[in-house]
TrEMBL record, chain A:
Membrane-spanning parts: 20-45, 147-171, 183-204, 216-237, 258-281, 316-337
InterPro entries listed in its UniProt record: MetI-like (IPR000515), MetI-like_sf (IPR035906)
Membrane topology: Multi-pass membrane protein
Compartmental location: Cell membrane
Protein name: L-arabinose transport system permease protein AraQ
GO biological process: transmembrane transport
One protein family per Pfam: BPD_transp_1
Key words, A-Z: Cell membrane, Membrane, Transmembrane, Transmembrane helix, Transport
Residue ranges constituting the ABC transmembrane type-1 domain according to the UniProt record: 148-337
Signal sequence, start to end: none
Top-level taxon in the UniProt lineage: Bacteria
Automatic annotation (TrEMBL), chain B:
Entry superkingdom: Bacteria
InterPro entries in alphabetical order: AAA+_ATPase, ABC_transporter-like_ATP-bd, ABC_transporter-like_CS, ABC_transpr_MalK-like, ABC_transpr_MalK/UgpC-like, Mo/tungstate-bd_C_term_dom, NA-bd_OB-fold, P-loop_NTPase
GO molecular function: ABC-type maltose transporter activity; ATP binding; ATP hydrolysis activity
Annotated keywords: ATP-binding, Hydrolase, Nucleotide-binding, Transport
Name of this chain's protein: sn-glycerol-3-phosphate import ATP-binding protein UgpC
ABC transporter domain: residues covered: 4-234
PROSITE patterns hit by this protein: ABC_TRANSPORTER_1, ABC_TRANSPORTER_2
GO cellular component, one term: maltose transport complex
Upper taxonomic lineage: Bacteria, Pseudomonadati, Pseudomonadota, Alphaproteobacteria, Rhodobacterales
Similarity comment: Belongs to the ABC transporter superfamily.
UniProt-listed Enzyme Commission number(s): 3.6.3.20
Pfam family, one: ABC_tran
Automatic annotation (TrEMBL), chain C:
PROSITE patterns to which the protein is assigned, alphabetical: ABC_TM1 (PS50928)
Keyword Membrane carried by entry: yes
Membrane topology summary: Multi-pass membrane protein
Subcellular locations according to the entry: Cell membrane
Cross-referenced PANTHER family: ABC TRANSPORTER PERMEASE PROTEIN (PTHR30193), INNER MEMBRANE ABC TRANSPORTER PERMEASE PROTEIN YCJO (PTHR30193:SF37)
One Pfam family of this chain: BPD_transp_1
Gene3D superfamilies the record matches: MetI-like (1.10.3720.10)
Membrane-spanning parts: 38-65, 114-135, 147-168, 193-220, 240-262, 303-326
Protein's name in the database: Lactose transport system permease protein LacF
Keywords recorded for this protein, A-Z: Cell membrane, Membrane, Transmembrane, Transmembrane helix, Transport
Alphabetical GO biological process terms: transmembrane transport
Length: 351, 350, 337
């Protein structure tokens, strides 16, 4: 074993023997990697397959596209097939049309001569290639762009408002002594117990009464006063020394300036964590938008995807592609900010 | 101008009163040091003057105007904090200008003030750095600079040197003294370090448990401490105390040494270790046994136990040949003895 | 490179800075008028207002809804029926048979949820504990593998549901594997037992990374010298695990248990997309029941949905109280150390 692989497979057993726990560890880790990434990769691979290929069984691992050829006398390019002759030899023919179980084909080199072939005897000629029209078509024709915009709007606005209101509340709760502060804290703790699914009906009625039904604001506002965010920020702000605030007070700063120019910049790490969480939360929200948004033009991506998947004639080639697009921001967050989040969770135990 | 007067200031946190009626007048241009053991209320008193806390009762006047109800920003004072409290996300320049911008001062004036004070404190090259990129001494200068640019009527300094190492502390102390000389602005300086207090102060305020024990110049405090607490607190090593009972105008100290006293009854005699010396054979002396010898080279600190068990410390010049367990006879200069009555108040010799 | 985000940041913050500066004078005036307490109120107000309108008020309103009947959402058009809705939910001829209940769907959903939670939480704890133990070993690339198991946590439930629906369908990846192993392909989600198992498996797949992180943090908080002391004593590894690792991980395990229970009871999104509650009612869980009764079905009954959600809320409150108690005990233990 080379020095490098010895280093990679550092393990419990000494010398060259593998302890059984090493075997379990690596089986678990490699199996886990396949299981965790595999489904998403399969989704991405599938999203580049055309509808015909998606209906095939067994499916191929990689996406293929049909090879076509321009044949004299025909306006459109014709798909090429490998045809097995009765004597066992194979030729490459282009298909004109299919009638029942036989196909009318033509040799590209001799375009005038038509040949009838049993479809059992022909196999499509394909190469690895991407059916990018799965992505392009819904973006151009469907409401997909609309959904995408709605989701971006909800995510950005909700995150901004969350950061602002939560940090203001956290500032008051961490840096002021006032009557009722403990009561407010208790109230916020208590509402950790009230998940959205418990107040669906009355919340719907409130949103209805405020005229926010079928409005993106009806999705945004109920989510922004998160107790988790207030908590996280308050814990962080408690670590900012009071002397800094006092120095600012001596420096003629108003309380609002202290919040805006001293506390907010110093709480930036915690704000960043909350921002990442908020983006992921709001981007992924499903149940509440599903209830509030009933007009198609207000759908967010998640609701839109669910609607597509619920249609009678499920157009998987579009759905898969749109699912991939929906995944992109989250994957970006994962790739670039994963460390932030994992330490945030380990530290505060929030999700 | 910077005259500050405190009138019967009291402060309670909840039910516990921590400042019990303080009266004090600080003259313009004076450097007054608040000194006392931790928990004596010196920092609280400073925060009350700053306006960061409000007194429970009593009034604070600056230049004759009652500012008790004014906010910290409107008192025209500047403060240097123990932790420096530099804004970590701002450059040195921004730290200095933050307070000036808040008063809507003109840009050119802000610039001028920053440049002046940076030159004075020799921090010109540091202006574009952030506090985390500075050494402890540099941060200290910036903190002082932030106070100077405000051109306040008085500076309040809360243990400003306590976060520096010993060597730097001595240098900064000297610089602070020079700065006060040059600016001539009133300064109130809080410390628990009596050497800082002695070297810097025009007048020292000794505090204990929320009360003023004595206000006087450094040398008066040293030479004429008003009570046992001040006597024990000022001077290092601490003053030796001998409790005894006087009758007929005389009191006996352990070992048979007699001193004259102006009144009878329970008294405490105090004498500084520096005012003790080894006795000649024929002299009356304090007698005891050496328990510890700290040889510092130029002088030697000898800890001994007197015959009655009282611990006493002597600072002897040079390197006397003494060891643990040796019998020792110590003489004193009777003119240097401080006498305190049963309540611990100073008795002046008649 | 670093200049681009900085300029972007400046573009975003410039208008915000302008707004912040603009509202400073009125707030200064307010501060002079009311002091620090008044400012505390200003800072709390936006959050508390939103909070009050969209959380606290609905909480109270829920009770009102649960005592009214009708299909109209407007409270004025609803009739007061007292505890009828609860009675309807809770009446059964034979409590072991959901079909004999007046509101049999509720009991089916409750029963499904119960079995789901028990199985899913056990699986979750088992899998995430093993993963955490493995990630806590001195292995190369630990950060990478920790990220690997965390990846699905970030995916939206809808995406999770679609990914697995795609894998479990007739021409899906799972059947490809089955065929390659020489077994018969299945239409997995058309089978009651398979569909139920799939909801458990998929939700464990999606969330285990989160619990693994909590457990891993717990494992890493166990002082190294304890293990070294045990090694000096010649303690066998199995005994080290049972007598040192597990007891010290106890508090974290308890937190994970309760969190997983709380989340499990509310399961909805990924299951709704994966199976839609089917086939039949085999994967119909409580939140979907509330959603269907309150919003989706033609004969919607918001009162009944409100009553059901209050019953579910009570379970959650109990679980949350247990969790708060546990984390407080942990904190005390932490501060004593």
């Amino acid at each position: 074993m080379s020095a490098a692989s010895r280093f990679v497979f550092r393990r419990r057993g000494h010398g060259n023997r593998w302890h059984w726990t090493d075997v379990v560890t690596w089986i678990w880790l490699i199996g886990g990697t396949v299981l965790m990434f595999g489904p998403a990769l399969w989704l991405v691979a599938s999203s580049f397959k055309g509808p015909a290929q998606l209906a095939e069984f067994p499916p191929t691992l990689l996406p293929y596209t049909q090879i076509t050829a321009q044949v004299e006398g025909y306006d459109d390019p014709l798909p090429l097939f490998t045809v097995t002759q009765e004597d066992g030899s194979t030729t490459i023919l282009a298909e004109i049309r299919r009638i029942g179980t036989s196909a009318q084909m033509v040799d590209p080199d001799t375009p005038s001569e038509r040949i009838d072939v049993d479809i059992e005897n022909r196999a499509p000629l394909r190469e690895v290639g991407l059916a990018t029209e799965n992505y392009v078509e819904p973006l151009v024709t469907n409401d997909f762009l609309r959904f995408l915009w709605n989701s971006v709007f909800v995510t950005v606005m909700a995150t901004l408002i969350t950061l602002l209101t939560n940090s203001m509340a956290a500032f008051a709760l961490s840096k002021y002594r006032f009557a009722g502060r403990d009561a407010v804290m208790l109230l916020i703790v208590a509402t950790l117990m009230v998940p959205l699914s418990v107040i669906l009906v009355p919340l719907y009625s409130v949103v209805n009464a405020t005229g926010l039904l079928n409005s993106l604001w009806g999705v945004i506002l109920p989510t922004v006063a998160t107790p988790t965010g207030v908590f996280l920020l308050r814990q962080y702000m408690l670590t900012i020394p009071d002397e800094l605030l006092e120095a600012a007070r001596m420096d003629n700063a108003s309380e609002w300036q202290i919040y805006w120019r001293i506390v907010l910049p110093l709480a930036a790490p915690a704000l960043a964590v909350l921002a990442i969480f908020s983006v992921v939360w709001r981007w992924n929200d499903f149940l509440w938008p599903l209830i509030v948004l009933s007009r198609r033009e207000t759908y967010t991506l998640q609701v839109g995807l669910n609607t597509y998947a619920g249609e009678l004639n499920v157009q998987w080639h579009y759905i898969l592609a749109m699912t991939v697009v929906t995944m992109i921001p989250v994957v970006l967050v994962f790739v670039f900010l994963q460390r932030f989040i994992t330490t945030g969770i380990a530290g505060a135990g929030i999700k | 101008m910077g005259r500050i007067a405190l009138n019967d200031i009291r402060k309670s946190f909840g039910k516990t009163e921590v400042i019990h009626g303080v009266d004090l007048a600080v003259e313009d241009g004076e450097l007054v040091v608040f000194v006392g053991p931790s928990g004596c209320g010196k920092s609280t008193l400073l925060r009350l003057i700053a306006g960061l806390d409000r007194p429970t009762s009593g009034t604070i006047e600056i230049d004759g105007a009652d500012v008790t109800r004014h906010s910290a920003a409107n008192r025209g004072l500047a403060m240097v904090f123990q932790s420096y409290a530099l804004y970590p996300h701002m450059t040195v320049r921004q730290n200095l200008s933050f307070g000036l911008e808040n008063t809507k001062m003109e840009r050119a004036e802000i610039r001028r003030r920053i440049e002046d004070s940076a030159r004075m404190l020799e921090i010109e090259e540091l202006l574009d750095r952030r506090p985390t990129q500075l050494s402890g001494g540099q941060r200290q200068r910036v903190a002082i600079g932030r106070a100077i640019v405000r051109e306040p009527s008085a500076f309040l300094l809360d243990e400003p040197l306590s976060n520096l190492d010993a060597e730097l502390r001595v240098t900064m102390r000297a610089e602070l003294a020079q700065l006060h000389e040059r600016l001539g602005t009133t300064m109130i300086y809080v410390t628990h370090d009596q050497i800082e207090a002695m070297t810097l102060a025009d007048r020292i305020v000794v505090l204990r448990k929320g009360r003023i024990e004595q206000v006087d110049t450094p040398l008066n405090l040293y030479n004429r401490p008003a009570n046992l607490f001040v006597a024990g607190f000022i001077g290092a090593p601490n003053m030796n105390f001998f409790e005894t009972t006087a009758s007929d105008g005389r009191a006996e100290l352990p070992g048979g040494l007699h001193i004259d006293v102006p009144q009878d009854g329970k008294i405490t005699a105090g004498i500084r270790p520096q005012h003790l010396r080894l006795a000649n054979r024929e002299e009356e002396a304090l007698e005891g046994t050496v328990t510890l010898v700290e040889a510092l080279g130029a002088e030697t600190v000898v800890h001994a136990r007197a015959l009655d068990g009282t611990a006493m410390v002597t600072v002897l010049s040079g390197q006397p040949n003494l060891g643990i367990g040796d019998a020792i006879r110590i003489a004193l200069d009777r003119g240097e003895v401080h006498l305190f009555d049963a309540e611990g108040q100073r008795i002046d010799p008649s | 490179m670093a200049a681009i985000p900085r300029t972007l940041g400046a573009i975003v913050t410039a208008p915000l800075t302008w707004i912040a500066r603009a509202i400073d004078p009125p707030l200064r005036w307010w501060q002079r008028l009311t002091g620090l307490n008044g400012m505390a109120a200003v800072f709390l107000l936006p959050n508390l207002a939103i909070f009050g309108v969209f959380v606290l008020f609905p909480l109270v309103l829920n009770v009102v809804y649960s005592m009214t009947a009708g299909t109209n959402i407007l409270l004025g058009d609803r009739s007061f029926v007292g505890l009828d809705q609860y009675q309807r939910l809770l009446t059964c001829e034979d409590y072991t048979q959901a079909i004999t209940c007046r509101e049999d769907m509720f009991w089916t959903a409750a029963g499904n949820t119960f079995f789901f939670v028990v199985l899913q939480v056990s699986m979750m704890i088992l899998v995430s504990t093993i993963t955490a133990l493995i990630l806590n070993r001195n292995i190369r690339g630990r950060g990478f593998f920790r990220a690997v198991f965390f990846f699905p946590v970030l995916l939206s439930p809808v995406v999770v549901g679609l990914i697995w629906r795609w894998i479990l369908q007739r021409q899906g990846l799972l059947n490809l594997i089955m065929v390659n192993l020489g077994m018969e392909p299945e239409v997995w989600l058309n089978d009651r037992a398979y569909a139920f198992t799939a909801t458990i498996g998929v939700s464990v797949w999606a969330h285990m990374g989160f619990y693994t992180l909590i457990l891993l943090a717990g494992l890493q908080a166990i002082p190294k010298d304890l293990y070294e002391a045990a090694e000096m004593d010649g303690t066998p590894p199995a005994r080290v695990f049972w007598r040192i690792t597990l007891p010290l991980l106890g508090p974290n395990l308890a937190v994970v248990l309760v969190l997983a229970l709380i989340r499990g009871v509310q399961i909805f999104d990924e299951v709704y997309v994966l199976t839609g509650g089917g086939p039949g009612t085999s994967t119909l869980y409580l939140t979907q029941y509330i959603y269907e009764v309150g919003f989706a079905s033609i004969l919607r009954n918001p009162g009944l949905a409100a009553a059901a959600s209050i019953l579910m809320g009570l379970v959650l409150v109990v679980l949350t109280l247990v969790q708060l108690g546990l984390s407080r005990r942990n904190e005390q233990r932490g501060s004593r150390q």
